[in-house]
Amino acid sequence: MDMYAEEIISHYEHPHNKGKIENASASMHEHNMVCGDDITVYVKIKGNKVDDIKFDGSGCAISTASASMLTDFAKGKSISELEKMGVSDMIGLIGVDPGPARLHCATISLKALKEALFMYAHKEPDAKTRSL
Fold first, then answer.
1. Which end of the chain has less neighbouring CB within 10 Å, N or C?
2. pLDDT-based confidence at 92, cuts 50/70/90?
Protein backbone atom coordinates (compact mmCIF):
# COMPACT_ATOMS: atom_id res chain seq x y z
CA MET A 1 0.00 0.00 0.00
CA ASP A 2 2.84 2.41 0.82
CA MET A 3 4.30 1.88 -2.66
CA TYR A 4 1.00 2.98 -4.22
CA ALA A 5 0.73 5.97 -1.89
CA GLU A 6 4.26 7.02 -2.85
CA GLU A 7 3.40 6.75 -6.54
CA ILE A 8 0.27 8.85 -6.06
CA ILE A 9 2.27 11.51 -4.22
CA SER A 10 4.93 11.46 -6.95
CA HIS A 11 2.31 11.93 -9.72
CA TYR A 12 0.65 14.68 -7.67
CA GLU A 13 3.90 16.58 -7.09
CA HIS A 14 5.26 15.98 -10.62
CA PRO A 15 2.26 15.28 -12.87
CA HIS A 16 2.94 13.84 -16.30
CA ASN A 17 1.28 15.34 -19.38
CA LYS A 18 0.11 18.50 -17.60
CA GLY A 19 -0.75 21.30 -19.98
CA LYS A 20 -2.93 22.06 -22.97
CA ILE A 21 -2.96 20.87 -26.56
CA GLU A 22 -3.66 23.60 -29.06
CA ASN A 23 -5.89 22.36 -31.87
CA ALA A 24 -6.82 19.21 -29.94
CA SER A 25 -9.07 16.74 -31.74
CA ALA A 26 -11.33 16.86 -28.69
CA SER A 27 -11.38 18.20 -25.17
CA MET A 28 -13.73 18.04 -22.22
CA HIS A 29 -13.97 19.89 -18.92
CA GLU A 30 -15.25 18.35 -15.68
CA HIS A 31 -15.77 19.99 -12.31
CA ASN A 32 -16.57 18.34 -8.98
CA MET A 33 -18.60 20.87 -7.01
CA VAL A 34 -18.32 18.80 -3.82
CA CYS A 35 -14.52 18.87 -3.48
CA GLY A 36 -13.49 21.47 -6.07
CA ASP A 37 -11.57 19.21 -8.48
CA ASP A 38 -11.48 20.96 -11.85
CA ILE A 39 -9.96 19.27 -14.90
CA THR A 40 -9.89 19.56 -18.67
CA VAL A 41 -8.57 16.71 -20.80
CA TYR A 42 -7.19 17.44 -24.29
CA VAL A 43 -6.79 14.64 -26.83
CA LYS A 44 -5.09 14.54 -30.21
CA ILE A 45 -6.36 11.59 -32.28
CA LYS A 46 -4.53 10.05 -35.19
CA GLY A 47 -5.79 6.90 -36.93
CA ASN A 48 -8.42 6.20 -34.21
CA LYS A 49 -5.69 6.14 -31.54
CA VAL A 50 -4.60 8.66 -28.95
CA ASP A 51 -1.55 10.34 -30.41
CA ASP A 52 -1.18 12.87 -27.61
CA ILE A 53 -3.07 13.67 -24.42
CA LYS A 54 -2.74 16.31 -21.74
CA PHE A 55 -4.74 17.55 -18.81
CA ASP A 56 -5.00 20.90 -17.11
CA GLY A 57 -6.68 22.14 -13.99
CA SER A 58 -6.42 21.70 -10.27
CA GLY A 59 -7.50 19.22 -7.70
CA CYS A 60 -6.60 17.00 -4.82
CA ALA A 61 -3.74 14.49 -4.82
CA ILE A 62 -6.00 11.63 -5.97
CA SER A 63 -7.54 13.52 -8.91
CA THR A 64 -4.23 14.97 -10.12
CA ALA A 65 -2.34 11.69 -9.76
CA SER A 66 -5.16 9.78 -11.46
CA ALA A 67 -5.14 12.21 -14.40
CA SER A 68 -1.36 11.88 -14.68
CA MET A 69 -1.50 8.07 -14.63
CA LEU A 70 -4.46 7.94 -17.03
CA THR A 71 -2.77 10.19 -19.57
CA ASP A 72 0.35 8.01 -19.45
CA PHE A 73 -1.79 4.92 -19.98
CA ALA A 74 -3.96 6.39 -22.77
CA LYS A 75 -1.14 7.28 -25.18
CA GLY A 76 -1.27 4.94 -28.15
CA LYS A 77 -4.54 3.30 -27.07
CA SER A 78 -7.49 3.01 -29.43
CA ILE A 79 -10.63 5.05 -28.93
CA SER A 80 -12.73 1.90 -28.55
CA GLU A 81 -10.40 0.50 -25.87
CA LEU A 82 -10.60 3.70 -23.82
CA GLU A 83 -14.37 4.03 -24.27
CA LYS A 84 -14.78 0.68 -22.50
CA MET A 85 -12.90 1.72 -19.37
CA GLY A 86 -14.78 1.98 -16.10
CA VAL A 87 -14.31 2.45 -12.38
CA SER A 88 -12.56 -0.88 -11.81
CA ASP A 89 -10.09 -0.14 -14.63
CA MET A 90 -9.25 3.20 -13.05
CA ILE A 91 -8.79 1.66 -9.60
CA GLY A 92 -6.47 -0.92 -11.16
CA LEU A 93 -4.53 1.82 -12.91
CA ILE A 94 -3.91 3.87 -9.77
CA GLY A 95 -3.34 0.77 -7.66
CA VAL A 96 -5.47 1.73 -4.69
CA ASP A 97 -9.19 1.81 -3.93
CA PRO A 98 -9.91 5.41 -2.92
CA GLY A 99 -13.12 4.46 -1.15
CA PRO A 100 -16.58 5.89 -1.78
CA ALA A 101 -15.74 9.39 -0.55
CA ARG A 102 -12.85 9.84 -3.02
CA LEU A 103 -14.05 7.67 -5.92
CA HIS A 104 -15.17 10.66 -7.95
CA CYS A 105 -11.72 12.23 -7.45
CA ALA A 106 -10.14 9.12 -8.95
CA THR A 107 -12.49 8.97 -11.93
CA ILE A 108 -13.03 12.61 -12.91
CA SER A 109 -10.25 12.50 -15.52
CA LEU A 110 -11.61 9.24 -16.95
CA LYS A 111 -15.05 10.80 -17.33
CA ALA A 112 -13.55 13.82 -19.09
CA LEU A 113 -11.46 11.61 -21.40
CA LYS A 114 -14.34 9.32 -22.31
CA GLU A 115 -16.73 12.22 -22.92
CA ALA A 116 -14.12 13.86 -25.17
CA LEU A 117 -13.74 10.62 -27.13
CA PHE A 118 -17.51 10.17 -27.50
CA MET A 119 -17.77 13.77 -28.67
CA TYR A 120 -14.97 13.19 -31.18
CA ALA A 121 -16.81 10.11 -32.52
CA HIS A 122 -20.13 12.03 -32.62
CA LYS A 123 -21.71 9.59 -30.17
CA GLU A 124 -23.64 10.07 -26.95
CA PRO A 125 -21.79 8.97 -23.79
CA ASP A 126 -22.83 5.53 -22.61
CA ALA A 127 -24.42 4.84 -19.22
CA LYS A 128 -21.08 3.67 -17.79
CA THR A 129 -19.55 7.05 -18.58
CA ARG A 130 -22.49 9.11 -17.38
CA SER A 131 -22.36 7.30 -14.02
CA LEU A 132 -18.70 8.18 -13.36
1. N
2. very high
- Return the CATH fold of 2-130: Sufe protein. Chain: A (3.90.1010)
Domain ranges of the chain: 2-130
Question: What is residue 3's predicted lDDT score, i.e. its pLDDT?
Answer: 66
Q: Report the helix count and the strand count for the chain, using DSSP H and E.
A: 6, 3
* 3-class secondary structure, 44: strand
What mean pLDDT do residues 84-91 have?
95
- For residues 56 and 54, what is the distance between their CA atoms, to the nearest angstrom? 7
How far apart (Å, rounded) are the C-alpha atoms in residues 42 and 113?
8
Which run of H or E residues covers position 125?
Answer: none
pLDDT in tens, 6-50: 899 999 999 999 999 999 999 999 998 888 999 999 999 999 999
State whether residue 34 is helix, strand or coil.
coil
